[in-house]
Specification:
The protein is α/β, with parallel strands linked by helices and 341 residues long. Helix content is 30%, strand content 27%.
């Protein structure tokens, strides 16, 4: 019998039973020369808490790679180690073939780092800050063009402290890119941006990849990772729990989601009857008195059972939608948590 979750318990998303077995990544044969980042057996601890627990992952050159995970998964610590801000307590990290701590001076001209907030002088104007950074590099991008692409030209003379959150976010991205880096780490590049600017940032990141720049991306917008990333690494409790392209991660499952909206409240006992007919491996969630969601095998039998149940219980659907799982479904299956950080 399928497990049924009433809406009165506040559950609004299907879960998958049983939980997936621990993930054992398949390590492809990639030459070190083809890698922008290689993390091998990284361990990082804060007191008694292990933030990163033997983590191994790769970032290939000329790609956009997304690193995802719930709050506390170890993303920030891992990326700060790759950026040279922390020294590995165990394991090794190589960035463009170099040690990010020992070889920091050699790496600095070759990488860009976008911080989510902070790190800027509050009194500096946006344009003068960007031009100052450009002068620190041998072959910077055109500052005027970069400001136009990121809609910063209208606030170029505004002091940093008076910029909106979205403007500060875009300036942080511009500062990371102006030096024309080979590799750029971008942390939540579109957080707080309106849809139009967000798409402009997406277009810019895709152009960078086309031009041979490697991008390592963290984001809490899963559709952003699904749109941009060539490869996704999902972390949880300091370990790698899944790795692959968005297509590989989403097509590997056998789960589809059916959402049913009706015109009248469900007859008493009818959701329980539907759950009983669906069988094991299927989750039914009553979202509210007029809608429910079924998550089960991605085949015609589940849809046929829902249709038969509607006929047997005189339920008239107002709408019925069927969708394959997406990256958010994969994330929830693997981590069991919605608090994507």
């Amino acid at each position: 019998m399928a497990r049924i979750t009433p809406y009165s318990q506040g559950v609004t998303a299907a879960s998958v039973e049983p939980r997936a077995a621990p993930y054992t990544p398949r390590v492809p044969q990639i030459r070190a020369a083809d890698l922008a980042v290689r993390v091998d057996g990284l361990v990082m601890r804060y007191g008694d808490r292990t933030a990163v627990d033997g983590l191994s992952l790769d970032v290939e050159l000329n790609t956009i790679t997304a690193v995802l995970g719930p709050n506390g998964a170890g993303k920030t610590t891992t990326l700060e180690t790759c950026e040279g801000y922390r020294r590995p307590q165990a394991g090794t990290v190589k960035v463009l073939g170099l040690d990010p701590v020992r070889d920091r001076r050699a790496l600095l001209p070759r990488i860009g780092v976008m911080l989510q907030s902070g790190g800027a002088w509050s009194g500096a104007r946006a344009e003068e800050m960007l031009r100052h950074f450009a002068r620190l590099h041998a072959h910077p991008l055109d500052v005027t063009l970069l400001m136009e692409r990121l809609a910063l030209h209208e606030c170029g003379r505004t002091p940093y402290r008076r910029l909106s959150g979205g403007q500060q976010q875009r300036l942080g991205l511009a500062l990371a890119l102006v030096g024309r880096p080979e590799l750029v780490f971008v942390d939540e590049p579109t957080a707080g941006l309106d849809p139009q600017i967000r798409r402009a940032v997406w277009d810019l990141l895709e152009e960078l990849r086309t031009d041979g720049v490697t991008v390592v991306l963290t984001t809490h917008y899963l559709e952003e990772a699904e749109r941009l990333a060539d490869k996704v690494h999902i972390l949880d409790h300091g370990r790698l729990v899944a790795s692959g392209s968005p297509l590989e991660l989403t097509r590997g499952g056998t789960v589809a989601t059916i959402r049913l909206v009706v015109t009248q409240p469900f007859p008493p006992g009818s959701p329980e009857a539907l759950a009983a007919s669906l069988g094991p491996g299927t989750e039914l969630t009553v979202l509210d008195p007029l809608s429910l969601q079924v998550s089960g095998p991605a085949d015609g039998s589940t849809l046929a059972k829902v249709a038969a149940w509607c006929a047997d219980h005189d339920v008239l659907p107002e709408s019925l939608s069927l969708g394959q799982r997406n990256l958010e479904d994969v994330f929830l299956e693997l981590t069991g948590r919605e608090d994507l950080g």
